[in-house]
Structures
1.
Amino acid sequence: MINEAVTLRPMQLSDLNCAMQLSTAEGWNQTESDWKLFIENPLNICLVAMAGKKVIGTIAAINYSNEVEWIGMVLVNKAYRGNGVSTLLMKSILDKSASFKSVKLDATLAGQAVYSKLGFKNEYIITRMTSSSVQYLNDDGGLFPEPIQLKDIEEIIALDKDIFGAGRRYLIEYLIKKYPGKSWMLKRNNHVTGFVLGRDGNKYNHIGPVTASSDADTKILISKALSKLNNQPAVVDIFNDKEDLLNWFHSIGFVNQRQFIRMYKDQNSFPGIIEKQYLICGPEFG
């Protein structure tokens, strides 16, 4: 039972240490840079729950082109769970979300029950897979991924919008500019047909998002990303309808860690093209 009244306030950069403590305690992969990505964009909504002067919970919602609000980073200190803190955080975010056409999230199995009571519906299952030590993969697909240059960003953003379903300029620019060594693309007839992005993590190198026109192209892109991570840990989040890709990851030493459930509130106005979405950017980003 919480003795102090629980209050909510906007998250600030001074809360970074507390936020990292909460996510690290859960074994999550976020870094301070990930948290800053949420906090520093004034279009995003980031809240902390306070018990007295102590940060006991967080929530963040990233704004995708004023159309989709993506909710993530719902964390509550273990000592304060069972007191409705996560529901309080969610309701506060949803109260601020009336202007969005779509509100979505990727839920843990534990969180799914909370979100269902708030009107969220299931869309897809996503499987998280990890490797503690990536082994070098040779790409024998006949196509050679190119590093994404600054001049390619606009085309990557446009392709991502078509496939994801909503514009994610802020996220895509951040990933390419901050992690250029993890950003690769395939071109045909001088047009981008697929790409892989990635970022550093607290525990694993995260590979994703990955957009491609076929399973074969996806493996070429991912093989390129993995070739830069020899003997390093890596994590991927795969849509469960991509059975061939799931089996391929098993064959190269990745193991299942957990599942997420993609959910949407009321209407799914921006479903995207699921056939061309292979890996997500992580449950906090979609």
2.
Amino acid sequence: MAPFDFALDRELWRWVPDEISLHLTRTPFVPVEVSLDLARLVSEHETLREAVRALCAVAPEVVAYACTSGSFVGGVAGERAMCAAMTRAGELPSLTTSGALLDALAALGARRIALVTPYTESVTSSLEEYLAQAGTAVTGRAFLGLTRQIWKVPYRDVVDMARQAVVGAADCLFISCTNLPTYDVIPQLEAELRMPVLSANQVTMWAALRRIGARAVGPYQRLLIEEERRARPSAPEQSPERQQQQEG
């Protein structure tokens, strides 16, 4: 499920393996610009429950709320309460973008991050507060101050913001907002900045697919490469006698 103004269905699909189906529904329209007020409105529990019930008509295996601001605006406790409300409504595993971000940071062992957002300063600061509650420090940030049509931001602006944000000793970069295009820019930034780059849509799809035993598709993306590496069976240990035979 996604907020009413979500415009990047096509980008979400790019992380999905061929054998997996992705179904989307949106929250009801409200005449409010992107702000903390909007984040609260699109994350009300009854709104989430209605969206989950709509999606349950196609018998999904997992439900994801694809909205960063809507899932961090209530802090860590608020995000957990959202997941609980969705799980009760559909009786199936549920997650949010902000919760998926914390899972991805844990998987990479990242405790200090650079932050890029299209939001206003107040919404960006709310994300920093959410991360601080989870024990993650923000070493640098850049934001655009947008309140509408975020999906129209070009890749070059995302790259420029990333360069501005990476000013301290960060473990990785996070690009926030599911309405901000990021798929094609992640490999470029990882190569240039020499650190893992996470994005809102990437971590959402990574976490959702992980819940059903599948892996997201994305070339040259460190999070997905690390996931594949961990999934590979380790080679069995050989006895000293066997090693000597091979060396001989």
3.
Amino acid sequence: MSQFEEGLPSHFVVFSQTPKAQEHGRALFLRFSIFLIVPVLGILVFGSFPVSLVVIGVFFLISGFSYQQWHDWQRTPFAVSPSHPMMELDSDKESEVMIRMHDGRWLKAGNDRYRLIKDDVLSGYNLVAINDDYTILGHFTDKKTLDANLRRTMALLNQSLALRDAHNEIEDEIEDARKRESIDYGLLDRDWPDESEMEDASGPIAKRLKRQE
């Protein structure tokens, strides 16, 4: 078990290891592998030292960016139980979601959706339930800005909670149950979105949360 998964119950599966997430991870790796070939070809074609030096610099820039993108994807901070629809096992057992806090603790997600609110004391954002009391689940990240990666993470997390509730036949107070079922379950049937689509997170649940943030 990696340090990232430490404390997570053994039967839970981190998001990046779910079938669709693995597909996207492989596509991400392939895309950047192709991008890395270009500088190598540049070195072979333009053999002069100044040009090769520039091309090598581009190679390392792409390598660093590629690794960071892949690393962030692998550490998307939530996990699902084997019965969750993201696992595509067609199980009748209750579906659950666990969320990883900034300090490494894994906490069971409540019945609500979540949003990020700046912490006035600590640097970063707290994960807060969207309910009448805005219950704080915990300190989620020390990032100072709500960047595209955080927005994507929140969209994926809330979609996983919508899928969980649909599986458990829990009434969804955020969206009409019929619309939720047709839209969110569609995530399991269509191709995984690219990076720009992930930021918008397609479905109406994520769009509403994005507006609230």
